[in-house]
Amino acid sequence: MILKNLTIVSAFTAFIFAVSAFMQKDKINTRNTAVFPDNGFAVLELFTSEGCSSCPPADELMGQIEKEYKDQPVYILSYHVDYWNRLGWKDRFSSAENSRRQQMYSSLLRSQTYTPQLVINGKTELVGSDRNAIENAIQNVILSSKTAPVSLSAVASQKTITISYKTAETDPQNQLFISLVEKKSSTQVAGGENEGHHLQHWQIVHKQKQISLKDHSEGTEDFKLPDNFTKDNWEVIGFIQNSKTGKMYGASKAVIQ
After folding, report:
1. Pick from 44, 53, 65, 47: which is nearest to 199 by CA?
2. 101, 123, 155, 213 — which has fewest CB within 10 A?
3. Which pTM was predicted?
4. Cβ atoms 199, 187 nearer than 8 A
5. Backbone dihedral region for residue 177 (phi beyond 0: left; psi -120 to 50: alpha; all else: beta)
């Protein structure tokens, strides 16, 4: 009888371990297989620079997140700021417009201006290389956000990329931002803090247009065709943002045809 009971206990224990192992495996994979609500989204805006030695890990993380959330409503925009350019290396992707956008967030969020800085859905700022904090923030905003539909399409010609947009959003304080994004590029850095390093970049914002939705909830915008343009390495990302609060109300992307 004792032997029989021990056999039963052993079998039950083995079953519990098997179930536990299965649940743990499922938990590990949850991040990449979770089904999010249809109306949730996350817009990740990274402020970075080739002149900043702390930025490459954040750039690399954006590439990993882009891959992991490929089929989820997660949109990544990397803005290269220009204030590092005077410190030994000029970032070819940088612009004063990108720096001004970061300064806007500094005012809205009452935060410092630094690199790498990440802003999510216009309301939460984090260190751009803090994977755990960023992963948690993505999960939270996707589950809590509600999106206003944004329809985008993009067609390339010999000289331009024409974007057609449409949304039902008409709040005069809301703006539609449309960004022309290079998915991946790299640079051999010859000066500054990253001298001698070959840096990889993902989701680089080259141009961004701001459209008032008060009288233009539907229309078209043109971008000049980039010199190094290939359809498979460029895309268009759009989002709706309140100009007073920074809060975002919807986002989408378009493959360039």
Report:
1. 53
2. 155
3. 0.85
4. yes
5. beta
Whole-number Å distance between alpha carbons of 6 and 238:
63
Using alpha carbons, list the distances in angstroms from residue 61 to 76, 183, 242.
11, 14, 28
Residue 246 has phi, psi (to 5 degrees) of: 90, -10
pLDDT at 29: 38
Structure tokens at 161: 């990329």
Which of 65, 68, 72 lies closest to 38 in space, CA to CA? Answer: 72
User: What does the angle CA 170 – CA 255 – CA 257 come to, to the nearest 5 degrees?
Assistant: 110
Q: Across the chain, which distance is largest between two alpha carbons, in Å?
A: 86
Nearest to 174 by CA among 236, 132, 216, 125: 216
Q: What is the pLDDT of residue 38?
A: 58
How many other C-beta atoms are found inside a 10 Å radius of the C-beta of residue 125? 22
Burial group, residue 61, by CB count within 10 angstroms (0-12, 13-18, 19+):
buried
In this structure, are residues 153 and 164 in contact, taking their beta carbons and an 8 Å threshold?
A: yes
Q: Smallest Cα–Cα separation from 42: which of 125, 129, 140?
A: 140
Q: In Å, how far from its chain's centre is CA 14?
A: 43
